[in-house]
Design a protein that fits this description.
Layout: H1 2-16, H2 20-59, H3 67-97, H4 100-108, H5 115-140, H6 150-167, H7 178-189, E1 196-201, H8 208-217, H9 219-222, E2 227-232, H10 239-250, H11 253-259, H12 266-277, E3 282-289, H13 294-301, E4 310-315, H14 318-321, E5 329-331, H15 337-348, H16 362-372, H17 376-386, H18 393-401, H19 403-409, H20 414-425, H21 429-438, E6 447-448, H22 449-458, H23 471-484, E7 489-493, E8 499-503, H24 506-518, E9 523-525, E10 532-533, E11 539-542, E12 551-552, E13 559-562, H25 569-578, E14 584-586, E15 607-609, E16 630-634, E17 640-641, E18 653-657, E19 674-675, E20 687-692, H26 695-700, E21 709-715, H27 720-727, E22 735-740, E23 746-747, E24 760-764, E25 766-767, E26 784-788, H28 797-800, E27 808-812, E28 819-822, E29 832-836, E30 843-846, E31 856-860, E32 880-884, H29 888-895, H30 899-902, E33 907-911, H31 916-931
Parallel strand pairs: 1-4, 1-5, 2-3, 3-4, 9-11, 10-12, 11-13, 13-14, 14-15, 15-16, 16-18, 17-19, 18-20, 20-21, 21-22, 22-24, 23-25, 24-26, 26-27, 27-29, 28-30, 29-31, 31-32, 32-33
Antiparallel strand pairs: 6-8, 7-8
């Protein structure tokens, strides 16, 4: 580092003035020993941080309830933060030293040239001393780290207690899950000779153990089996203990004592159980299984004897449930609200006649039940706790308003946090940090894969394996793991089944957020009464009450994520001046028109988001943000980027988009952002949207071989071949949006190679001779296809019918003919069909057996389609139909003599494109899906009409 710094200093000195070179040379010579020692120390301290982080990740959550250990570990975290501060400050000054305009002219030009560097050795010495004291403290207070201590034993005992408590639940107290219990009963009673493994899967608190207990005690089921055993496995199981527990329940106690089974080896225990069960029909319940490896020995012990034996497993993990063959898996879901209310009243008002909720507390009771989001554990625990309180509105209101505090501090509610936290404690360190991060989102927030993965990467939470796998792929795998551990619910999938949005149960979020705050990982500001944040957390999400924010006293903030658009502009400027080491700055929705000047000084930034703001211009000074990975300017007013953006060689995602027509019925529905300079240096780019291309850029694209998602605008025929040649050099390209220069530009794609890996393709512009090019016959992987303004003269449906994986098909002004025909067997996976603005179309033939899975049909601006297509009656899966700007004759036939054709469709919506209704049905969902809750209320109402 020292040699590199000398070179930089000399170059800058030469550019400043005469005589400066001699002065700086003298300073360099004097500082050389300091810098060389510092370089060595920095390498040591970076290694120390890696060890600290690995240690914290290994022990976090493993010794729950040990207050001495917790206090010591908190100091270890503080030291790790100090080390991280030193490294981040070093990175900041290193980049700043290369920025002669902001640093050398203001700092290095003065005598204090090396003041910034000279402070590091003393800081490192202090950290090393603190680490030494922590080691001494551990010995002094006999703090155990690796071995299982008293807290672990208590945790294991607590898990058994929770399991046994659920086991003792009366059947009369079970509410809901009738279908699941019925199916499980059927599985247990069915006459199948093979031993059957059945799994009950679901998040903690859903009632898996309660249901398993109900079945295990059911006399109709018990009489079918010769022997029964119930074993709680838990997170801290020992194989020998499990086997002995089973033997205790299966074999006579006198036989056990005389045989010495309880002191024998693991394999001998397996043989004993196997021998005893060899000719028996048995039912064994394995409750609370966390690790599929536990099954390895039990599989041998539970003999396959063709007597129709059953093994019932309860688990939170999908990999464990997958041990069940032939899909004998029952996945529990949360209760419906009606069921939740019934269960809550049974617990909270059990002393009242018929357990009816008194009117004076009804509104608060409903809020509490809604907060539980159908989780039986929470409903039962909160209801039971409230049953001992006075039925007075003030007391219930206080309880609800303090629910977060209650969960963290009220012993009566510890059952909830204990059960939910078990899943968190089971996570490996790399998943634990990522899950803590998700708790910073607002409650009921739709966590989108594309956004959260970028934030995790920017925060350094995702491993870079350097094996050709992108960090985005690894982040997606993390999300999959969290889902398979029942910590997330997938609520939205892409056209090809890829999980796209996730939801965290609100109470799980609450208990996780408590841990995130305790460990100084992050805090969520959402209390309108909070005016100052003093907690030294690394991350801050502002969810609501932003107007009450005054200032921050923490010096360690690395991330600011904005969810409340009402944050004062003065607060933003204050925060940016205080926290120069920020890695993540998300000002989405902020009411700002200009980029704050301090942003360009945040040299450590990885993630920068000004989407959905009024920002119009990006300054050239952004070229200094050399660490930037994500620049998101969607829904802003930026239509041109400075040349300096092409200097940001670490960029992975660059999104710029001004939307002019949210219904996307016009060719220029997006603006074509101008990007100056040579983009060949942006070799790490994975996504580039939405840019105006020319011949030079078309050829430069070929250097961006990592590209996965791309939007090109203003495409002309004279360089389409060169552009396409560049695209063929992108083996991972999955999403391509290609727009012609204007409605008169004719694109000839006949001789071009197909892009075989495309999943999403949007082609807008006239096609040569009005025909689909031959390459379309090779698009076997396409799941989403939109053709717009194509000028097709021949019915395109037959040319697309081979696309068996197509889920979404959108034809916007694509066809000039009069008839479209959908034949039987075509489009078996199609979920959504949109036919828009085809002015000559007057007939749509739909045969029985086509589009057998169609869920959504949209007909827009089909001026000559006078009658409802008869074939719609064959599509029994249709759930909704949207009709916009359709002829009066069509609407009259729909509501009159053709009504029988659509009577099976539960949701039919009829609009005019300039109505408020179309704004609510198109604009609001569009913005909410793209940018999350809260964005829709800021969407301009005039975006509902085309061509705006």
């Amino acid at each position: 580092m020292a040699d590199a710094l000398f070179v930089v200093l000399r170059k800058i000195a030469q550019s400043l003035a005469e005589g400066v070179l001699d002065k700086i040379s003298t300073e360099v010579v004097e500082a050389a020993p300091i810098l060389e020692d510092f370089e060595h120390s920095m390498k040591q301290i970076e290694g120390e941080l890696s060890m600290l982080q690995a240690f914290i990740g290994q022990v976090s959550g493993k010794k729950v309830g040990d207050k001495t250990f917790d206090a010591w570990l908190e100091q270890v975290r503080d030291v790790a933060h100090d080390v991280e501060d030193i490294i981040d400050e070093y990175a900041y000054i290193t980049v700043q030293a290369m920025d002669k305009n902001s640093f050398f002219k203001r700092k290095f030009h003065q005598i204090k040239n090396f003041a910034a560097w000279q402070k590091f050795p003393s800081q490192i010495s202090k950290v090393e001393a603190r680490i030494q004291r922590l080691a001494e403290m551990r010995n002094r207070y006999d703090i155990s780290v690796g071995e299982q201590g008293r807290s672990n034993i208590l945790q294991s005992t607590n898990q058994h207690f929770l399991s046994e408590s659920a086991y003792l639940t009366h059947d009369s107290e079970i509410v809901g899950h009738a279908d699941e219990i019925g199916r499980l009963t059927q599985y247990l009673l069915e006459e199948k000779q093979d031993r059957t493994l059945i799994a009950i899967l679901g998040m903690g608190g859903l009632g898996k153990t309660t249901i398993a207990s109900s079945l295990y005690k059911n006399q109709q089921i018990r009489t079918v089996f010769d022997f029964h055993a119930w074993v709680t496995v838990s997170q801290t199981y020992q194989v020998e203990e499990l086997l002995r527990d089973i033997i205790n329940q299966l074999i006579d106690q006198r036989a056990i004592m005389s045989s010495g089974f309880m002191t024998t080896s693991r394999m001998r225990l397996v043989e004993v159980i196997e021998g005893f069960l060899r000719d028996k029909k048995y039912l064994i319940v394995l409750d609370d299984v966390w690790d599929k490896d536990a099954w390895l020995f039990l599989d041998y012990a539970f003999v396959r004897n063709n007597h129709g034996s059953k093994v019932l497993v309860t688990t939170r993990r999908k990999d464990v449930s997958s041990l069940a063959v032939d899909n004998y898996i029952i996945e529990l879901k949360t209760l419906q609200y009606v069921e939740s209310w019934k269960l809550f009243c049974k617990k909270a008002f059990r002393a009242l006649k018929d357990s009816i909720c008194p009117e004076n507390v009804r509104s608060w009771a409903e809020k509490i039940v809604a907060k539980c989001q159908g989780l039986p554990l929470a409903i039962v625990t909160l209801g039971s706790t409230l049953s001992y309180r006075e039925v007075e509105e003030q007391e219930w209101a206080f309880f609800y308003n303090q629910l977060s505090w209650q969960l963290a501090n009220n012993p009566d509610l510890s059952w909830i946090s204990n059960v939910l936290n078990m899943s968190l404690h089971d996570l490996p360190s790399y998943l634990r940090s990522c899950f803590l991060y998700c708790s910073l989102y607002p409650e009921d927030y739709k966590i989108r894969r594309n956004l959260i993965s970028k934030l995790w990467i920017a925060e350094g939470l995702v491993e870079d394996r350097e094996d050709g796998t992108t960090m985005e792929d690894i982040a997606e795998n993390y999300l999959t793991e969290l889902t398979q551990r029942s910590l997330f619910q997938v609520i939205e999938r892409s056209a090809y089944g890829r999980a796209r949005a996730f939801l965290m149960h609100d109470l799980l979020r609450e208990v996780t957020l408590i841990i995130a705050k305790k460990e100084k990982f992050g805090i969520a500001h959402g209390d309108a009464g909070m005016t100052q944040i003093t907690h030294e957390a690394r991350r801050l999400s502002i969810q609501r009450g932003a107007q009450s924010l005054n200032s921050l006293t923490s010096s360690r903030l690395r991330s600011i994520i904005l969810f409340d658009p009402e944050v004062p502009l003065s607060w933003i400027h204050d925060a940016l001046s205080r926290f120069r080491l920020l890695r993540v700055l998300c000002l989405r929705f902020a009411d700002i028109e200009q980029v704050p000047g301090m942003v360009a000084e945040l040299y450590n930034l990885r993630y920068l988001d000004f989407s959905y703001t009024k920002v119009r211009q990006i300054p050239a000074s952004f070229g200094k943000l050399m660490n930037l990975q994500v620049l998101d300017l969607r829904f802003s007013y930026v239509e041109e980027l400075p040349l300096e953006i092409t200097m940001l060689t670490n960029l992975r995602h660059l999104h710029v988009c001004v939307i002019r027509d949210i219904q996307e019925r016009s060719l220029n529905c997006f603006s074509a952002t101008k990007l100056h300079g040579n983009i060949t240096r942006l070799k790490n780019l994975l996504a580039l949207h939405t840019f105006s291309f020319n011949k030079d850029l078309a050829s430069q694209l070929g250097n961006l071989t990592q590209m996965r998602s791309l939007t090109v605008m203003n495409v002309r025929q004279n360089y389409i071949a060169e552009l396409w040649n560049s695209l063929t050099k992108m083996p991972n390209l999955k999403n391509l949006l290609l727009f012609a220069y204007d409605t008169d530009e004719i694109l000839n794609l006949k001789m071009l190679e197909p892009l075989l890996n495309l999943r999403i393709f949007w082609l807008a512009g006239k096609l040569e001779a009005g025909l689909l090019p031959a390459m379309f016959s090779k698009f076997q992987k396409l799941t989403w296809l939109k053709l717009a303004c194509s000028g097709l003269k021949k019915d395109p449906i037959i040319s697309l019918s081979h696309m068996l994986n197509l889920v979404d098909l959108l034809l916007f002004g694509a066809y000039c003919g009069v008839q479209l025909t959908f034949c039987a067997g075509w489009f078996p996976k199609l979920n959504s069909l949109q036919l828009v603005d085809m002015e000559y179309l007057n007939q749509i033939e739909i045969e029985d057996g086509t589009m057998t899975g169609l869920h959504h049909l949209e007909l827009v601006g089909l001026e000559n389609l006078k009658a409802v297509p008869e074939g719609i009656k064959h599509i029994r899966t249709l759930h909704q139909m949207f009709l916009t700007d359709m002829p009066k004759g069509f609407i009259q036939s729909l509501q009159g003599n053709k009504n029988h054709i659509v009577q099976h469709i539960p949701n039919i919506h009829i609009f005019d494109s300039d109505s408020q209704a179309v704004h609510n049905f198109h604009v609001v969902p569009f913005v909410s899906n793209k940018f999350g809750p809260g964005a829709a209320k800021h969407a301009p109402t005039n975006w509902g009409s085309s061509g705006t």
